[in-house]
Design goal:
This protein is of the alpha/beta class and about 500 residues long. It has 20 helices and 8 strands. The strands form 2 sheets. Strands 1, 4, 5, 6, 7 and 8 form a 6-stranded mixed beta sheet that branches. Strands 2-3 form a two-stranded antiparallel ribbon. Helix 11 links the parallel strand 7 and strand 8.
């Protein structure tokens, strides 16, 4: 029985479309990224190149920025993977004008322009602001632990590092002594037979290093765990307490709006979240001011950011930081202790401090007059209401110590605790509903970065390089959110929203 199939002849020669715009649909993400980069200020990239045209030609920074932004927006961070995709994937070939970009070139560009790449975050945030999707009435702050490109087993104490170095030097001395015995007055550069072969030599070195590491780990078990340790692979990273135990890595901080636009992103090796709260609110405020967006209305954060310092911060926005876990918040609000404010007691405390200061100033003036012989001891005692002997004692202290003893200030009136103050804020109508918006804002963004785009472990090493990688991932995230909001009318509407002269960051 005859069959009717679409032919599949792989030996048939064809011509690809000459126009690259026929390779992909018009609403593809790559076209959006290309158009977005045209609106960014790339002066910081061009500034480092020579103006006279001398030297070997370099790739256009606009093309390299587009390549990196698109790669990070889809979760591709490896330079070698980017190189492979410039040869195999149509979006990457379109960006590079069908050129294969070597991974070493990509690495050098990222290293050379690390600061400028991080600054693109504000530029892309400005595009989002012009599109009207940055509405920071509520900004949620949260942190996520990301593994470093290092192993926790490589954490060594100072004593272990010194012992390892001492063993290496001792072994070198022993080898020198042994070679002197073997070769005498010879040059001594002849390698032992088991080290002549390169593969055997590398294997021998690996075994020696592994033996030293095992010895160091065995000794570490008998020592205090509180001693400072440093990771020999990525010294900037630190042990981070994560949901399922500990990992060697960094603490990424995000500030996100209800539209899931990241308005601030930073990276630190500090395990504590509460120490990063003020810096994140300040960075988010500065970024929004830079793009002429509306100010922050309310900042929400979970219990990891709660402490006395953050509760009483005055940063402009209203702060809602839960002092308990979210599941116990309703019960804590219902059973909270009332906040008792006594303005009269505070006013009396201020008056007492001012009165004591006036008395101290008056006493200083009287004693100064007695020392300068403007008044007698009897007149000074009468003015101060003390005995003449006490006046002599005051004079001795002033001449020998250079100052008089100040009376201790009265203790301030009792103030409400941070927990009472924060629970009182949550008790106001609508506060709990505003706080629970964080579950729809920052947490999904973290899931998209880690699960959808694979940001579970950094590719680079060192805090500066990892911070740039983290910020670039969030820049790509914002580009995707902007693309999603505009893709139905990409082209005419996008150009109308963002004319080429609209942005200058």
């Amino acid at each position: 029985m005859p069959k009717n199939f679409i032919p599949c002849d792989r030996d048939q020669q064809r011509l690809l479309p000459i126009d690259m715009r026929e390779w992909l649909p018009k609403n593809h993400l790559v076209w959006f990224v290309i158009d977005s980069v045209k609106l960014l200020n790339l002066e910081a990239f061009y500034r480092v190149y020579r103006d006279d045209g001398w030297g070997r030609a370099a790739y256009n920074p606009a093309m390299m920025v587009t390549l990196l932004l698109y790669a990070y927006s889809i979760g591709v961070r490896s330079a070698r993977e980017i190189e492979r995709r410039t040869a195999e994937h149509a979006p990457f070939r379109i960006i590079t004008d069908d050129r294969i970009i070597d991974h070493a070139t990509i690495c050098r560009f990222r290293t050379r322009h690390r600061d400028a790449l991080s600054e693109l975050f504000v530029g892309v945030l400005g595009l989002c602001a012009d599109a009207g999707i940055v509405r920071p009435a509520v900004v949620a702050i949260d942190g996520t632990k990301v593994a470093a490109n290092a192993s926790a087993d490589r954490n060594l104490t100072r004593e272990q590092l010194e012992e390892f170095a001492r063993r290496v030097f001792d072994e070198a001395e022993a080898i020198d002594a042994h070679e002197d015995e073997l070769y005498g007055d010879k040059r001594g550069d002849e390698l032992p037979e088991h080290l002549i072969d390169e593969a055997a030599r590398i294997e021998w070195l690996k075994n020696k290093i592994a033996e030293r590491q095992l010895e160091a780990n065995a000794k570490a078990k008998n020592r205090s765990q509180r001693k400072a340790r440093v990771n020999t692979t990525d010294p900037d990273s630190a042990l981070q307490k994560a949901r399922h135990g500990y990992l060697q890595g960094y603490n990424g901080q995000l500030a996100v709006t209800p539209a899931q636009i990241v308005v601030a992103a930073d990276l630190t090796a500090d395990n504590n979240d509460n120490l990063q709260f003020k810096a994140m609110v300040t960075q988010a405020t500065d970024n929004l001011e830079a793009v002429a967006a509306d100010g922050i209305g309310t900042v929400v954060a979970d219990a990891g950011y709660f402490d006395d310092t953050n509760t009483f911060l005055e940063l402009g926005p209203r702060l809602l930081i839960t002092p308990v876990s979210s599941r116990n918040l309703d019960e804590a609000i219902a059973t909270r202790e009332p906040v008792v404010a006594d303005p009269a007691a505070h006013a009396r405390w201020v008056e007492d401090i001012e009165r004591l200061q006036l008395q101290a100033d008056a006493r200083q003036r009287v004693v100064d007059g007695y020392v300068a012989r403007h008044v007698t001891a009897q007149e000074a005692a009468q003015a101060l209401g003390v005995t003449i002997g006490y006046v002599y004692a005051l004079k001795w202290r002033l001449t020998r110590r250079g100052h008089l003893r100040q009376p201790p200030p009265p203790p301030p009136p009792p103030r409400p605790t941070a927990t009472q103050v924060m629970l009182e804020r949550f008790a106001k109508p609508g506060a709990v509903e505003v706080y629970r918006m964080r579950a729809k804002t920052v947490e999904p963004v973290i899931g998209q970065l880690k699960h959808d785009r694979g940001l579970r472990q950094f590719v680079h090493r060192g805090e500066a390089a990892c911070r740039c990688e983290f910020i670039m991932m969030n820049t790509g995230h914002n580009l995707r959110k902007l693309w999603t909001s505009c893709q139905e009318s990409l082209g005419t509407l996008f150009c109308a929203l963002f004319p080429p002269t609209a942005r200058a960051f």
